[in-house]
């Protein structure tokens, strides 16, 4: 329905719409411009954030050992010197004078299976111009003698401990040993202790087993290595 002036023929509705539209146009244009500016700023901020994140990742990579290891190290003579790049590596050229090369620290003497022993023969170990000769039979005799000495020392220590525990005077004549041994071995003695005797017998048996093995089977590879390493003529080179 149209509102018109009496007899004027004027379309008031159209006039009102035109007036309202003209009033709104500046505001609508302003809002549209602001919306466009906001979107542009948002896109710019997103792009800036992505750039910052990329820069941060690059810095973290530069701080990592993995990235540093991408540096290349070259040697003019790799036979005498080795090189690796660490976190504190600085690019540059370095010169080293090698005055003396280290001696090889490992030589294979002989290969033995598990629980295998050598009873006779001689093994020679040469290093630094010096030779160490190890006679198997002589070494077995030497080691068996050491075990016999250790067995006797073990018994003496045990008897001394008993004498101290029961206030037995340890005179020079050695009579105290008989008294201490009675306490150790005689079940009828009032101070006898079966656990103490069992522990003592186990220790003595270990010595006896080693002596028997050395006398009947020979020496182990470990014993040969130890003999060579302790020899004054091995020039500081360890046999392993």
Structural summary, described in words:
By secondary structure, the protein is mainly alpha-helical. Among the domains are: about 10-65; about 120-230, no CATH class. Helix content is about 55%, strand content about 5%. The chain has six helices and two strands, in the order H-H-E-E-H-H-H-H. It has helices at about 10-65, 65-70, 135-165, 175-185, 195-215, 220-230, and strands at about 120-125, 130-135. The chain has a two-stranded antiparallel sheet. It is elongated, with a radius of gyration of 48 Å. The mean pLDDT is about 80. Belongs to the FliD family. This is Filament cap protein. It is found in: Bacterial flagellum.
- What pattern of helices and strands is seen along the backbone? HHEEHHHH
Strand content: 5-15%
N→C terminal distance = 115 Å
**Could you list the spans in which at least 5 consecutive residues all have pLDDT below 50?**
none
Structural class: mainly alpha
How many β-strands, per DSSP? Answer: 2
Provide mean pLDDT, rounded.
Answer: 78
Gross morphology is elongated
Q: Share of helix among residues? A: 40-55%
Calculate Rg over CA atoms.
Answer: 48 Å
> Biggest sheet, strands in spatial order?
1-2
Count of alpha and pi helical runs: 6
Oligomer kind: single chain
Sheet of most strands: 2 strands, antiparallel
